[in-house]
Amino acid sequence: MSPSLALNWMSSEAGAIAGAWLAKMRERLDDYARGYFAVWVIRPIFDLSIAALIYAGGGRDLIPYLVVAMSANSLVWVTLFRIGEILDRERINGTLVSLFLTPCSRLSWLVGFAAAGVAETTAAALAIMLAGRTLFGVRLDPDFASLAVSVVLFVLALCGLGLILSGIGLLIKKANELANLVFPVVTLLGGAYYPVSRLPLGLRIPARALPLGYGMEAITGAALHHASLGALAPSLLPLAGFAVALPLLGAASFGALERLVRRRGEIDLY
User: Fold this and answer.
1) Which of 70, 95, 131, 171 is the most buried if burial means most Cβ atoms within 10 Å?
2) Are 71 and 65 in contact (CB under 8 A)?
3) What rounded mean pLDDT belongs to the chain?
4) Does this model's pTM top 0.90?
5) Which strand (E) or helix (H) includes residue 10?
6) Cα gap 118→64, rounded to integer Å
7) Is residue 270 situated within a structural domain?
8) Residues 175-185: pLDDT tens digits?
9) What is 186-252 written as a DSSP string?
10) Domain count of the chain?
11) 196, 189 contact by CB (below 8 A)
């Protein structure tokens, strides 16, 4: 590809991402006006309070971990739910076929739509952090370089998982229901409420086959204990492997399942 063609392609992809983000933000702002935004702010505080009160009776040392891990879990929620929910919504609205016919990559508008969830994710994470500080006196001691690397790798791995689930959801035409089914398992094995390292062996083995526990360990270590990149290497190295492999696997599986659905002629049928 010549430099000019590459530049035009990147410009087209960036425009598709921006357009998809803007369209979805307008839709979400309408939802927020009806009070939906409060769900993302208030519910995490109640979830944190319930879990922290349970640990306060035994295992109070886990409360700082809980605050940071639940904040990070907002990323899990938005990446595993948002892309699949988008496909279901567009199918119901009758616009899914038009999206698949747009002259840009699938990933561009999927990323743009998913990025609209950043506002909800940020609000939920900030609400949890503020509640942790106010209610339980949790203080952070972040290493910003380690935290930035950990979050980026975590998000890349989650996006790969989101693409895989979305491809399956496209095939079965129930992406949101699939995410609802998967999320409790992810919550149990992902370290959001309890460190993977402390899980019983029977749960720890399957948990280590997922990127979530590694991401939670890296993010909490960087945010709470000023852990350096070297100190976090046991968690960051496997997380980096997931961050490379899962997006590639996700893009390939989504494309394969999309082609299967197209051959069946069911892409716009609910």
Assistant:
1) 70
2) no
3) 82
4) no
5) helix 3-33
6) 23
7) no
8) 777 777 887 88
9) HHHHTTSSS-GGGS-HHHHHHHTTSSHHHHHHHHHHHHHS---TTTTHHHHHHHHHHHHHHHHHHHH
10) 1
11) yes
